[in-house]
Each structure stands twice: as structure tokens, then as C-alpha cells.
Amino acid sequence: MQLAFYFDQTRCTGCHTCVVACKDWHDLPAELVNWRRVNTYEEGTFPNVSVYHVFVSCNHCERPACAESCPEDAIFKRESDGVVLIDAEKCTACRACEDACPYGAIQFRTGDGSLAEKCNFCADRLANGETPVCVSSCPMRALDFGPSESLAERPGVAAKIRHLPDGARTTASLYVKPK
User: Fold this and answer.
1) Exposed (0-12), middle (13-18) or buried (19+): which is 154, by Cβ within 10 Å?
2) From the CB of residue 57, how many other CB atoms can be counted at a distance below 10 Å?
3) C-alpha to C-alpha distance for 139 and 155, rounded to whole angstroms
4) How many CB atoms lie within 10 A of CB 46?
5) With contact defined as beta carbons under 8 Å apart, do 76 and 84 qualify?
6) What 3-state class would DSSP assign to 50?
7) Residue 179, class by beta-carbon neighbours within 10 Å (0-12 exposed, 13-18 middle, 19+ buried)?
8) What fold, for 3-63+76-86+120-177?
9) Residues 51-100: pLDDT tens digits?
10) In angstroms, what CA-CA distances link 83 with 2, 3, 175?
């Protein structure tokens, strides 16, 4: 089974609650790293304008470019659910993974000795039968997660959306209902 995220762009208001909840749950320092991001885009000219938001994170790809590029095998895909994790004990901070990820999901804190880090799909919460904190915190219920096969069957899911890199090479585990 491959776990995936589902993002309903029609419901997202850009409130960043998912970002704050992620930072809080994982005790991430403000301004240094953002495992989860919400990017806002404005398009058009008056009177035909539109604003929409794009949920960006590690997509726990079926073929993760970050793992393929890691010379230390520090990044691996869990067989039980497809979650892509980093073994900090093996990471040498070579940054090959950062360059390889088309989504900018791999991040390093400023300063010497910073190791690769990214969304871990709230592996600790999954182990306790809970949902990822970004999903459970979203007030508009724009986020969900589950087995890739079931999310792919939801009505209105698009294979590709604007402002998100083409996931064909990595087969991103992200399903989006575009606005």
C-alpha cells in the first residue's frame, strides 16, 4: 500500500493552519524550516482575477528522487505504507537530495552540521492510529490522506496542476482537486 495526500484546492483558504500545526507538532523552529508550505498565487487582471493556494510538502513519491540521489542510503521508503523517511544517523549533509527533489521538500537548517529533514507523514501519529497533524488541523477539510488507489478515484482529481512540478518522474503520492 502507498499512502498519499489529497488536497482539495477548492476548499483551501490559505489560512496556513496546516503549516503552523506541523511546526508545532514537530517542534520546528520558526523561520528556519517549513516541512509544509502553502503558496498563494494571484492571476488575471481586473475584473477577471483569481486567487488560489497550492499545498506543498514531501509527496512521499513512489519513486523518490531524493532517495535515489542519496549516496549514503539515508533516505528510504518504508515498505508497509510507502512513507519516505530520513535516517539521520546516515545523513552526511551532502545536499544531493535537496537538489534532486522537484518539490523543494528536503530542507537544511542554517549553520554547520545541519542534516536533511522533511515531512515524515507524521509517522509517530500513524503508528498510534492518528491522522497526520496537517490533515486533522485543517479547518476547511481541504486535506486528507489514505491509500493512493482510493484517493485517485475521487471525483475531480487532476494529474497535474499549475505551479506544482510535474510528478511523472517521481510519481508523487499527491492527488489534487483543482480550483
Assistant:
1) middle
2) 25
3) 21
4) 5
5) yes
6) strand
7) middle
8) Alpha-Beta Plaits (3.30.70)
9) 989 988 999 999 999 999 999 999 999 999 999 999 999 999 999 999 99
10) 7, 7, 15
Question: In percent, how much of the chain has pLDDT > 90?
Answer: 71
In angstroms, the Cα distances linking 90 to 42, 70, 74, 86, 116 are 41, 10, 5, 8, 10
Q: What is the mean pLDDT of the chain?
A: 91
* Domains of the chain, residue spans: 3-63+76-86+120-177
* Residue 92 near residue 112, CB atoms below 8 Å: no
* 113-122 pLDDT, tens digit each: 789 999 999 9
Amino acid identity of residue 40, one-letter, is T
Which residue bears the cell 492527488? 175
Rounded Cα–Cα distance for residues 5 and 37 (Å): 14
pLDDT at 158: 83
